[in-house]
Amino acid sequence: MNLILLEPGEVGPDAAISLPGTRASHLRTVLKVVPGDVVRVGIIDGPMGRGTVTAVATDRVELRCDFDAVVPERPRVDLVLALPRPKVMRRLWAPLAALGVGRVMLTSAERVERDYFGAHVLDENVYRPLLVDGLQQAKDTRLPVVSIHRRFKVFVEDDLDRLCPDGRRIVAHPSTPGHAGRSVAGALAGIGTHASAVVAVGPEGGWNGFELALLEAHGFTTVSMGPRSLATATACIALLALVHDALPQG
Amino acid sequence: MNLILLEPGEVGPDAAISLPGTRASHLRTVLKVVPGDVVRVGIIDGPMGRGTVTAVATDRVELRCDFDAVVPERPRVDLVLALPRPKVMRRLWAPLAALGVGRVMLTSAERVERDYFGAHVLDENVYRPLLVDGLQQAKDTRLPVVSIHRRFKVFVEDDLDRLCPDGRRIVAHPSTPGHAGRSVAGALAGIGTHASAVVAVGPEGGWNGFELALLEAHGFTTVSMGPRSLATATACIALLALVHDALPQG
Fold first, then answer.
1. Cα separation of A40 and B144, whole Å?
2. pLDDT for res B181
């Protein structure tokens, strides 16, 4: 926990905060704070700042905070992800938030089991704390916006332009004779300093021909990360790292 | 499982193989093979090839194989990793093998708990099948060579040059005023077509000053992956993706 994130409602008008639960126990037992210590804090979707510890009790830590005037920018990468199986999805929430994504759009695909959409791990009460963990690791306040799309064709044709009106679109697909695939950097070459990207990652086994053609018809360039076939979680992390690296810093 | 990996001892002189266990049940229940089908096979640290199914029984699948003349090259990236906690290490074996590493050198550091070196997950009987899983995912046969180094200073001063005589050395470290850090691509610029890299990833909380200075004194260039602080597993996957992407393809 490199940053203590606060819910907007937790911050009083005088910027005094009384933290309960795991954040308090992290401050007491891991950071071993005493009154007068300063810790990094942030408000979810708000500014970062510094919190001065004013009191340490067995079940609570009290802070007086001083927030920056500016709010961090939203990450410039949005992710379209064919919903992986629940165990994989559960482990992916925190890394996605840590790497930095503006939106996570979970979609169906031929090779996605329909049951996955009923999984507990798509309940906001389950995934939101995991996203917050990732932000606290990465020192960011901007919570990814999550949406769930059970019909791939409807999502691509009717929802995508509204959710992601801007941004260079790329889809990761293993290289095959018919779809050699450019590199990530090649597909993002010449992108503007403040431009964003939308990246699509398919299911285990890949998008089918119809899905890939529909994405390409909606502006996605096929990219390849080389001949090695990666599991969904590894592929997502690798691709987000390459895309962030290829986006020019403003 | 995109490739069925065989132990060298499993392949008879006539290239006939009788597969038991999980590989047989994968062939029967996931790939639903019948006699005459051809599947991708490989021998650990040997060639890849094609296996023609000759018989399917309830507990075994028999194949006759035809192997390539050449053995895949070893991945051109070696990893020095400050040993993470056992739960993280367990989940990292398969992605490391899938992304492609020649060697995995696990080392101590000030911020590595000594107990971690006693973990079950450092038993070859535990990690080897996980590495094999990663290779089967990525369609490679070259098993990473694993070594465990409980004394960081001895490792860097006495063992590293012998284990990794060649290769551009880079160490990932969060950017700080004293160590701004170059980009991965910058640190690998101008590297030869067949050259390799050695990448070092520190513990949660980073290398301490002594450790970083010792690595730099032994030829490591400090690189940064940007301002976001990543958990060990995410950092490893992201860094390996960037390094593989930056190495020129021969």
1. 39
2. 66
